[in-house]
Amino acid sequence: MVEPIRIAVLGTGQMGAGIARLVLDKPGMSLVGAYARRPERVGADLARVVGLERDPGLAIHGDLAQMVRDGRPQVAIQATCSRLDEALPEIAVLLQHGVNVISIAEQMAWPAATSPAAARQLHRLAAAHGVSVVGTGINPGFVLDLLVIALSGVCLDVASISATRVNDLSPYGRTVLDSQGVGLTPEQFRRGLEEGVVVGHYGFTESIHMIAAALGWEIEHIEQTREPIIATVPRETPRVRVDPGAVAGCHHRAVAYRDGRPVITLDHPQQVAPEAEGTVTGDCIEIRGTPDVRFAGSPEIPGGQGTIALAVNMVPRVLAAAPGLYTMADLPVPAAIPGEARRGSRESAGS
Amino acid sequence: MVEPIRIAVLGTGQMGAGIARLVLDKPGMSLVGAYARRPERVGADLARVVGLERDPGLAIHGDLAQMVRDGRPQVAIQATCSRLDEALPEIAVLLQHGVNVISIAEQMAWPAATSPAAARQLHRLAAAHGVSVVGTGINPGFVLDLLVIALSGVCLDVASISATRVNDLSPYGRTVLDSQGVGLTPEQFRRGLEEGVVVGHYGFTESIHMIAAALGWEIEHIEQTREPIIATVPRETPRVRVDPGAVAGCHHRAVAYRDGRPVITLDHPQQVAPEAEGTVTGDCIEIRGTPDVRFAGSPEIPGGQGTIALAVNMVPRVLAAAPGLYTMADLPVPAAIPGEARRGSRESAGS
User: Fold this and answer.
1) Which residues from A are below 8 Å from B23, CB to CB?
2) Which of A178, B60, B144, B238 has its CA at a distance of 20 to 30 angstroms from the CA of residue B2?
3) Under a CB-based contact definition with an 8 Å cutoff, are residues B274 and B222 in contact?
4) Is A8 within 8 Å of A77 (Cβ atoms)?
């Protein structure tokens, strides 16, 4: 029998918990370590804190190096942050200990967009320790970049690209809702943008760089706009109620220019309860070229599940890669990894 | 300046001509050789025979080894056949001469489906000569396999997969139309199936193996059905006229079973002038799992252009790969390669 792949998870929020749960569901994987930044979680029992049905019998570590020494993971999945500067110290420790890394930090999807020097350093560090590191997630990392690139592969030439992801923020917690200005007045939204509290989507720059690099395009500049989505009817979710006139979300758009022309347009309006106003959610990729290509799905691929799945499904790709820093476009596509236990229970419940 | 990649094309039919044309359109590539099986084409001028706007000044070779010695290609694109047994001798010569190979022979998408021994031999031969070989094309190679696999990557688990490609055969020549029984009576269609003249789609076994291998599924058996699509109104294309009651095409379906249950269903009804009866063409992928995923595009990605584009766009992937035999799921996704000249002419014609 093949030994299960030893996995550690960093982060015990919604994403970290989902990743831990999925790893435990895969017979080919073994959860051997958990790490949290929040001091109050350190030392606590992982299964109890995040509510796991299967108990791996792991205490949450607050010392990353110690977690690695105790659990000896082959791959660590980082779900602690969005920003590169926050992600780097943890990733550096992991790489130095010979652990492959999959990060769902948005800026890790294309680290050079934030800091070319940091990207070079990551590559050197990974190569020096014989391991690999990749950033992934539903977006950036899949819908608005990897899928776009793959679809461009059927084109003789490409003139321009538009891709839109209309999603529903209702399943998300306060941190995400705040970052989109949900519940604010339009005036508060404007101020929030100026103060950097309302940020919209993290990841357009990363997606655009990934697409442009794959297509050999030199991008001159990127224009980004963030507009409030104002509710015209009451919108309610388990976590928030938005009255008419208040902000239900943020329509974030990025347009990338090449030779003075807009060539990549990415739209990502994020809001709570879009169905309350008849807004249909979904993902849509349109390539103008030879031939024109349009691929779409509705509703949108769920962001939380999609990101958790991608993080876990990339494990074999990262293990198979030569040492170094990768983006999603540099590795073979992920595939769903069989979860025998779950399938078994489904079968007995079904036919 | 970087030297252009030296490319040779095998085949001077519609596909070979399209590949030659596209290579000539890419500033990063140079067409250095052409080979044809048809004796009457040997020695003829490539540009004249296949109608190229840009003349690479190449005579068509009938001796593959000589073509390689003369042109010294780094990559050869094979567009001479569909079957593995026909593809192998040419590929073997190329690999032995240290030339990387991209084949659009349908059975090369997953050679082990036809012959595991041949697949092993291809891998050994490629590895021994330090080059790589991959089979690609719109289908098999992209729509009903690579895209399916990529989309499964966002799933926590997958219960079953359905994918459908409804296409229009009108642009195709007599060989393709005959293989789908276009123009036959229903009785002739049945007899054509028995005699192996009507074959339907080449590639379901390949696509199913590719998906199953990526998802770690063991397939017990594959059931295939080929039904005539009977015209109820006249259908006309530049090449053929189908009267009501005659066969307008072939609806080919494959169902793969795992643990006694159908888990992969691929549908590919191919016909001329589907719009004559209100049939909408398109590609659609549906994954039942967590989450369910559905992605679709209409009309279908054009098969001819798509296959030509994929063959050329995979050139950098094959060059970057470690020596050996690959499938589309083993390599990073293709991306459209910039064709500066064409873009330039578009710009001057446009804004």
Assistant:
1) none
2) B60
3) no
4) yes
Residue by residue, DSSP assigns B65-92 as HHHHHHH--SEEEE-S-SSHHHHHHHHH
Determine the residue type at B102: I
At B318 the three-state DSSP class reads helix
Task: Name all contacts of A276-280 with Cβ < 8 Å and 24+ positions apart.
Answer: A276/A231, A276/A233, A276/A234, A276/A235, A276/A236, A277/A231, A277/A232, A277/A233, A277/A235, A279/A166, A280/A166
Mind listing the pLDDT tens digit for each residue in A69-128?
999 999 999 999 999 999 999 999 999 999 999 999 999 999 999 999 999 999 999 999
Nearest to A164 by CA among A239, A42, A233, A255: A255
Say whether B46 sits in a helix, a strand or coil. helix
Q: Which 8-state DSSP code applies to residue A110?
A: S
- The answer to whether B153 contacts A332, with C-beta atoms less than 8 Å apart, is no
ipTM: 0.95
Average pLDDT over residues B254-263: 97
Least CB–CB distance from B290: residue in A291, A293, A305: A305
Q: For residue B136, what are its two tokens? A: 């690609």
The answer to whether residue A293 neighbours chain B at the CB level (below 8 Å) is yes
Determine the residue among B149, B286, B333 to mutate to test chain A binding: the one whose Cβ has the most chain A Cβ atoms within 10 Å: B333
φ, ψ of residue A282 in degrees (nearest 5): 165, 170
Q: Are strands A235-236 and B75-78 parallel, antiparallel or unpaired?
A: unpaired
- Return the pLDDT at B171: 87
CA trace torsion A205, B335, A315, A284 (10° rounding):
60
Residues from chain A contacting residue B332 (CB–CB below 8 Å): 329-332
> A257 CB near a chain B CB, below 8 Å?
no
Tell me, what amino acid is at A297?
A: G
Beta-carbon separation of A335 and B214 below 8 A = yes
**Separation of alpha carbons A173 and A21, rounded Å:** 19
Statement: residue A342 has pLDDT above 50: no
Could you tell me the strand order of the sheet in which B324-326 lies? B29-35, B5-10, B75-78, B100-103, B132-135, B324-326
SS3 call for B246 = coil
CA B322, CA B177: separation in Å to the nearest integer?
A: 39
Nearest CB to A332; choose among B138, B330, B337? B330
Pick from B59, B141, B52, B151: nearest CA to B103? B141
SS3 content of chain B, % helix, strand, coil (to 5): 35, 25, 35
User: Whole-angstrom Cα distance, residue A249 to residue A273?
Assistant: 10
Tell me the C-alpha distance between A203 and A106, whole Å. 6
Q: Tell me which DSSP letter residue A230 carries.
A: E
Please tell me the pTM assigned to this model: 0.96
Q: Do residue B309 and residue A155 have CB atoms under 8 angstroms apart? A: yes
Name chain B contacts of A351, Cβ cutoff 8 Å.
Answer: 261
pLDDT score of B340: 66
Give the model's pLDDT for residue B2: 78
Q: How far apart are CA B65 and CA B339, in angstroms?
A: 30
